[in-house]
Amino acid sequence: MLEELKKEVYEANMLLLQYDLVTFTWGNVSGIDREKGLFVIKPSGVEYGQLAPSDMTVVDLEGNRIEGRYRPSSDTATHAALYRRFPEIGGVAHTHSVWATSWAQAGRDIPCYGTTHADYIYGEVPCVRELTPKEIDEDYEKNTGLLIADEFSLRNIGYLATPAVLCRNHGPFTWGKNAGEAVYHAAVLEKVAKMAALCEWINPGNDPASQNLQDKHYYRKHGEEAYYGQRE
Amino acid sequence: MLEELKKEVYEANMLLLQYDLVTFTWGNVSGIDREKGLFVIKPSGVEYGQLAPSDMTVVDLEGNRIEGRYRPSSDTATHAALYRRFPEIGGVAHTHSVWATSWAQAGRDIPCYGTTHADYIYGEVPCVRELTPKEIDEDYEKNTGLLIADEFSLRNIGYLATPAVLCRNHGPFTWGKNAGEAVYHAAVLEKVAKMAALCEWINPGNDPASQNLQDKHYYRKHGEEAYYGQRE
Amino acid sequence: MLEELKKEVYEANMLLLQYDLVTFTWGNVSGIDREKGLFVIKPSGVEYGQLAPSDMTVVDLEGNRIEGRYRPSSDTATHAALYRRFPEIGGVAHTHSVWATSWAQAGRDIPCYGTTHADYIYGEVPCVRELTPKEIDEDYEKNTGLLIADEFSLRNIGYLATPAVLCRNHGPFTWGKNAGEAVYHAAVLEKVAKMAALCEWINPGNDPASQNLQDKHYYRKHGEEAYYGQRE
Amino acid sequence: MLEELKKEVYEANMLLLQYDLVTFTWGNVSGIDREKGLFVIKPSGVEYGQLAPSDMTVVDLEGNRIEGRYRPSSDTATHAALYRRFPEIGGVAHTHSVWATSWAQAGRDIPCYGTTHADYIYGEVPCVRELTPKEIDEDYEKNTGLLIADEFSLRNIGYLATPAVLCRNHGPFTWGKNAGEAVYHAAVLEKVAKMAALCEWINPGNDPASQNLQDKHYYRKHGEEAYYGQRE
């Protein structure tokens, strides 16, 4: 069942290791088959070195296990909520990568200080508010996903142009057109988070990059007039 | 004598290297056989590359060498005191890992700023006071262990839920159900120590995570209602 | 066509990886054949692991593709402008290396705090002003190169003695007598950028190295009276 | 000539790479044969990957080349001065390692904040004053060595107990009973320098470790009453 997607999700999970984004089992990646309405996700608490593609778990959009011998990631309900609310994404990644998590713990949006950021993420990376005690007690992981989607609506942020978010006191979620791109964005975010912190410490009171420069870099890589890469 | 335990302790010591927690010989791990009242520990000042399981030293709960051609770690009396005072632990690790040691040198408890911390360590990581000149002169290593245990009593901290401590101007000790888990906690602590410092620098005056969130994450991994991992 | 130069440029691009100066495809190196008035540059957005020397693109000094199946780097017009305005350079490198980029995002020149800097870069590393909206809209990459050259003229900085620049909110460009030396300077700059930040944080209000010491180190490595290395 | 010593010095130079203390050719190690009054040092500006033991250069205590096809390190006169003034040392190492160099650029002594420092270096690591223009112009490298030795005399620091120094705006020199120990101390210093900076940033206004604790750790590793390691 969904063997191709399992392989893709497995490989995306292994990329987390290659990009140095996870310690132990602290990360998970999923990918969705939109036609079937099912997604594939890493099992909970199993070490990366012991995983095979066939160990990936298949769940439905409510997060129920449909197939697989392992329980899915404890963050499955967050992934499910994101798939329901962000209909054009194909993959989701969650890590505790050092710099992005430090910004999440600090409770701050990451300003766009340069083109590395603007090339992949439009505008600041939002940090959502803390969950209420009720939201934590009743359905923590699901509410995490809903809060992210609500925050994007509230702030009028496009989820395709800004494929990253920080969960307060927790860590980052990123997404993309598939599992691999979600991980790619996790790696971009980690680098951007590190450089944003360093540049603030080098020049306290530093301003974000101008909107003109942000637009220039974002749109030379994205959209109909993009000219980065091999698209001709 | 205790060959299985020696192998386990040897492997846990080698994990210190793999997790990048030691420089040269600056770390040691032990594991205990509670029935026999003996524990196994790394020899003092021998390089990791030259060690074999059979080189591990067996000592009693007063820290006396019972078997082994090498003198045990110079910190043996600290391990012994921890085993006497914390009856449910099965392994102890000591390192000079960079970030945890920097907090120890700074003399500060590590606040719980996020879920990476709360997943494994309940509440802040305590930093014990400096030893008095008398405590240093008379039985330094033993007094280090006693001070840790006294501090946990005094502050009413549960040693199973908070398996880590910072010794002022020295470095961290961690423990667990066995030698391997003690090292795992040393790796968690190092990551947590790094992210706590970074998040304070990103947002000076930052508050710890809410008690609700800390409880949620700790108890989704620990205790009867845990649902992280493959426990069903 | 220009097979030797393609090989040299390919190898210089791969050095970016070896020196840990690039993430994904975020960097590019070129080398020029001054007699033919053509230069060779990495293609745009192709992963390093998939490149071969024959994939390098040949362009003229206006940045037009002359040969090669791939479109050249999106920063080609910047390289071209630098080759036109700095007639004695033979190679150019651009990266988003973490520390140099953080200084660029911070919008500050890197002061010369020590001999590591003075050995290779004479005086501070200039950070050029932000481009105007018009400069960004009309010919962004070309204007980036022109701005660099204008800044060097304006400040009366010799481009051979100071082979590095920071583009505001973007990242560093470096150059040298050939592609390999351009990359070497990119690695020097990254180290220098890191140590300059650290030393400011260790001692806020720290002064640059004395001009005497800067001159001593620069001239023991460069010019007729140099005595570093194997030149006799 | 001095083949054993050349091998030892070669291997010590290669340890600089293994311990991640050098970039490119920015470091050099020497070892002395006190009976012959000759020392062996790395050649100037030759890459580590191209060196063999037979490439090491033999010089006398004035720094004159006695044997070897390469010119000796440009810092040879500093090594020579240290050997003349510190008669019990057997090896000297110089690096531009990131954290120690950043303290040197910051112009500050490194306070002893913990036992990692106290285990190997007694008291603070001194940072010597800047050389005068005259000292720079007339015999820069020799004067660097003389200034170090003068500073140790002036401050009444024992060079055996404190085997490390920072040269203002330049970088560290370390020494030991032989070339290998000099490099070992360079690695200790780098770790100590990093943790001293981090602990100051975690707790601005932090005090050094108590003299009692410093003495305890230094003397449990050094001198007649040492009990660290396998000495019985």
Explain what you see.
Chains A, B, C, D: It comes from Claveliimonas bilis. Four copies of one chain form a homotetramer. Chain A has helices at residues 3-18, 76-85, 98-106, 115-118, 133-154, 179-202, 211-221; strands at residues 27-33, 38-41, 57-60, 65-67, 91-95, 127-128, 164-167, 171-176. With 232 residues, chain A is α+β, with helices and mostly antiparallel strands. Chain A has a single domain (3-113, 125-201), classed as L-fuculose-1-phosphate Aldolase (3-Layer(aba) Sandwich). In chain A, strands 4-3-2-1-5-8-7-6 form an eight-stranded mixed β-sheet, sandwiched between helices. In chain A, strand 7 and strand 8 form a beta hairpin. In chain A, helix 1 packs parallel to helix 6, helix 2 packs parallel to helix 5 (133-154) and helix 3 (98-106) packs across helix 6 (179-202). The N and C termini of chain A lie far apart (36 Å). At the A-C interface, helix 6 and helix 7 of A face helix 3, helix 5 and helix 6 of C.
